[in-house]
Amino acid sequence: MLQFKDKIKKLRKEKDMTQEQLAEYMGVSPQAVSRWETGATCPDIFALPALAELFGTTVDGLLGVDEKEKHREIRSIISVAEEKINQGMTDEPIIRLREALNKYPNNEQLLCSLMYALYVASEDEELCKEYDGEIVSIAYRIEQHSTDSDCRNTARSILFRHYCDTNRKAEALQIADGMAPIETSLERNIYWALEGDDRLAYLKERMADDMHYLLWDINAYSCHANISEEEKERLNSVCQNIKELMKVSLNVE
Question: Which CATH code fits 4-62?
Fold first, then answer.
C-alpha cells in the first residue's frame, strides 16, 4: 500500500500535472507540494476533499485505505456487534463501534450500528439518561448528511422508538410523519420485478418475516390487552401453530 506522500506524487503524475500546477490549484506554494511529496508535511485536513476530487478518488483512497479491506473490516465489526447485542451484551459492542468510528468517523453503517447498540443498552434507566444525547445526535447527523436511504430509515426508526420509550410522543410523531408507508417500501414492491425461482424464494422469505411480525404483534397484544387467561391461552395456541407452520413449511425457527 502506498504511503500518502507516494500516493500524491503518483496521482499528480498520472494527471500530468507539475508541482507548480497542483500548488496553483490548491492555493498553496510549490514548496508546500514538494514537502507533501517528501513526507515532510501533510496537507491541511480540510484540503483533502479538494485533492480527492481533483484526482478522482475518495479521501480514504487518497490516504491509501484499501476500500475492499475497509468494507470487510466494517462488515466484520458490525456482524460481531450485532451477535453480541442479540446475546444481551451491549458494553463491548459500544466500545468496539466507537473505536471503529475513530478510524472511520463518517461511516454511516457504523453510526447506525452504534445508535442501535446505545438504544438497546438504554433499557437500563440510568444508561438511557447517559446515552440520550448521543442517540439523538447520531440520528440528526445521519438525517442531515447521509445519502444512504437504508441508514436514514433505520436511524429514524430507532429515534422514533427512543422518543416513545422516553415519553416524547410529540417528537416521535413528527418523525412518523416522515416515514414511508409500508405499501411503498422496497420489500412490498420488489416482488413485481422478480420471476421464477427468485420470486418464489423472495415470497418464502417475506412470509417468514411477516409471521415473525405477526408473532410479535400477538404477544404484544396478549401482554397489554385486558383479556382473560382463557383468551391468552387461545392466542398462545395460535402462536404455536404459526411457529410449527414456519418450521415445517418454511424451514424457519
Answer: 1.10.260.40
